[in-house]
Amino acid sequence: MRRVVVTGLGAVTPLGVGVRQTWKRLLDGHCGIVNVVDRDERFRDIPSQIAAVVPRGKKEDGAWTASEWLSRGDERVMAKFAQYAMAAAEEALGDAGWKPTSFEHKEATGVCLGSGIGNFEEMYDTVVAYEQGGYKKVNPLFVPKLLINLGAGHISMRYGFMVCIDQPKRHPTPPRKSTLTSAQQGPNHAATTACTTGAHSIGDASRFIACGDADVMVAGGGESCIHPLAIGGFARARSLATDFNDNPEKASRPFDADRKGFVVGEGAAMLVLEELNHARARGAHIYAELKGYGCSADSHHMTAPKENGEGAFMAMKKALKQAQLTPGEIDYVNAHATSTIIGDAAENAAIKTLLLGPEGKQKPADINVSSTKGAVGHLLGGAGAVEAVFSVMAIQDNVMPPTINLDRLADGFDCNYAPNESQARKIDVALTNSFGFGGTNSSLCFARLK
């Protein structure tokens, strides 16, 4: 199997637009969760009136204005999650210095971008318009804006990873001995596995490279469903924090004894993954190697994990097996930990089961684990991608991001969680976990290149 490395990073998060802006504010203990009643009066009827929202403002200030990233036409046809992902992809490709122009390079470059829910607002608005005015009120772009795979499609089309070989004027490099007249391209793939989507997208993309289907993949996840109906649905499922409407920055409390539920967030993150020799040949900066990817199923419940964290344990175990690493070699775990009572406890149990023992750590305090969801909320389909970026940056900078709002540990939580402050650590290997409704689990293992 070919080795896969990370050569570019991009992010749009509730802490800001851009990886450096987001990462600095994360390490400094900032939080992107706000009250959203001023966005829509209907939030007043919902027990949870908070969300982690991408800040609006000028690009130069690390904030989001769509017109600074997209043409008016692109903004009109793209779902919000796809807009965020497009910006993250632009940053990641620029960071990697990968702008393919030849047919061969474009053909060897693919996109893997998913979303958990996708364009929720478009669906809601169209249903209302149809009920009120019938067929003629349906936007002709309704279906294209609804399809989750269009996020990957838009990125592919913008950067020419979709190459039409019957248009020599646009793509002057001739195809290699082919009589095809249809479109040729690298992989164009979209995962949608609830809150595991971002991690699955990155893991699947790495396998395209490892198996020789591509040399470069732009991979990640995005989400934007800060809508009263979506928030209301999660609230009715009793998944959300509801006690912090007047103090939103304290709402997301991973591992804390007073945690009440998660906070919905929005944004996107993209990684440029590349075959190792391909990256070396062009002199690319290599952040880390993606050494392991593990997946599992709980086979237990629609929304709740097994209390012993068995599914999470199996995903991490498989990632380590593929990486050919022992539990003792794991320096940091970026936990899925969303701030739910059952979920955090189950994952905590799984991490300790995996990492403690003869081949692992001697005591729980030796296990370095933190959750960044206290700062950015839970980005659903984008969470795994954002947290993959954080894990790679932890290796790059040898620093463990903090778990903010962790003031009081409950029984059984006895690892090092970097409470409220980042910690300088030697981090050569990091695991990052993502779990989703339906009992789907994934773990990615990144390591410093050797």
Question: What does this entry look like structurally?
Answer:
The protein is α+β, with helices and mostly antiparallel strands and 450 residues long. It has a single domain (4-447), classed as Peroxisomal Thiolase, Chain A, domain 1 (3-Layer(aba) Sandwich), CATH 3.40.47. The chain has helices at 19-27, 72-77, 80-96, 103-107, 120-133, 142-146, 150-159, 197-210, 228-236, 276-281, 310-323, 341-355, 373-376, 383-397; strands at residues 4-13, 16-17, 33-35, 50-52, 109-114, 162-164, 183-185, 188-189, 216-223, 267-275, 288-297, 332-334, 369-370, 399-400, 423-424, 429-436, 440-447. Strands 1, 2, 5, 8, 9, 10, 11, 12, 13, 16 and 17 form an 11-stranded mixed sheet that branches. A two-stranded antiparallel ribbon has the order 3-4. α12 (341-355) links the parallel β12 (332-334) and β13 (369-370). α3 (80-96) crosses α7 and α8 (197-210) crosses α14. The longest helix is centred in the first third of the chain and has 17 residues, at 80-96. The model is unreliable at 163-184 (pLDDT under 50). One of its GO terms (molecular function) is 3-oxoacyl-[acyl-carrier-protein] synthase activity.
